[in-house]
């Protein structure tokens, strides 16, 4: 069954259930990650791995070892991807042609419902749009770094979310 997003006339997402990704989705998920990350350069440092390695990692690590969820258009093309690893939001990327329409909000609220005990994630210090997005969704800053611990060597911020009591 195709579970597509319902983009309303205002261009925002209606209700749609994310679909759990399997090995057959690896190629499309990698393409989406590459597309989204490339479009975000400036806010996000350029990828340190070539596309071929991103594709291999998506297949053998991301989809094989993490819980990956997709939102798709009516033609089953992924428009947004969420990867959860324990209480971590490891990846949250929206197709650059579909940002700002509620897809990311839908997936982060979905992540909260799947991890009611709490969530954490890293975002680059330069990614102010994403920071605004996480703050709006109830995340708070837990830690800032100088970037020496990540591959990109770029300062980043750890955000956490805990369910309100
Ligand atoms: C950040 C992101 C996941 C948010 O998802 P979204 O579907 O675009 O967001 P929503 O429509 O639900 O919410 C809108 C908010 O998201 C953020 N946002 C929107 N477009 C964005 C973009 N291109 N890049 C970063 N943040 C963006 C803004 O905070 C925006 O609020 P604003 O209109 O007040 O500025 C998505 O924009 C994205 O994939 N950006 C590029 C990659 C990225 O930064 N991923 C997060 C890595 S930690």
Task: Summarize the structure in words.
By secondary structure, the protein is α+β, with helices and mostly antiparallel strands. The chain has one domain: 3-Layer(aba) Sandwich (Aminopeptidase). Helix content is 30%, strand content 24%. It has helices at residues 26-39, 51-65, 103-114, 128-136; strands at residues 19-20, 67-72, 78-85, 88-94, 119-124, 140-144, 156-161. The strands form 2 sheets. A 4-stranded antiparallel β-sheet has the order 1-2-3-4, sandwiched between helices. Strand 3 and strand 4 (88-94) form a beta hairpin. Helix 1 (26-39) crosses helix 2. The radius of gyration is 15 Å and the shape is globular. 31% of the residues are buried. The mean pLDDT is 93. Coenzyme A is lined by residues 36, 40, 43-44, 92-94, 99-105, 123, 127, 129-130, 132-133.
What would the principal axes of the Cα set say about the shape? globular
CATH topology: Aminopeptidase
Radius of gyration, Cα only, in angstroms? 15 Å
Quickly count the helices: 4
Class computed from helices, strands and strand pairing: alpha+beta
Q: How far apart lie the N and C ends? A: 37 Å
CATH homologous superfamily name?
Gcn5-related N-acetyltransferase (GNAT)
Total of domains: 1
Which molecules other than protein and nucleic acid are bound? coenzyme A
Note the beta-strand portion. Answer: 15-25%
> Given this structure, which CATH class is correct?
Alpha Beta
Major sheet: arrangement of strands? 1-2-3-4
Average pLDDT works out at 93
CATH 2nd-level architecture: 3-Layer(aba) Sandwich
């Amino acid at each position: 069954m195709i579970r597509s997003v319902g983009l309303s006339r205002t261009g925002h997402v209606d209700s749609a259930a994310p679909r759990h990704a399997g090995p057959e989705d690896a190629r499309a998920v990698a393409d989406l990650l590459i597309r989204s990350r490339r479009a975000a350069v400036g806010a996000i440092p350029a990828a340190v791995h070539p596309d071929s390695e991103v594709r291999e990692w998506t297949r053998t690590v991301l989809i094989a070892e993490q819980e990956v969820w997709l939102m798709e258009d009516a033609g089953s093309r992924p428009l947004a991807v969420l990867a959860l690893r324990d209480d971590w939001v490891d990846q949250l990327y929206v197709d650059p042609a579909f940002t700002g329409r509620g897809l990311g909000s839908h997936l982060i609220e979905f992540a909260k419902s799947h991890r009611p005990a709490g969530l954490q994630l890293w975002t680059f210090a330069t990614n102010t749009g994403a920071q605004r997005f996480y703050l709006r969704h109830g995340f708070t800053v837990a830690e800032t770094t100088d970037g020496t611990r990540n591959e990109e060597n770029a300062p980043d911020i750890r955000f956490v979310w805990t369910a309100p009591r």
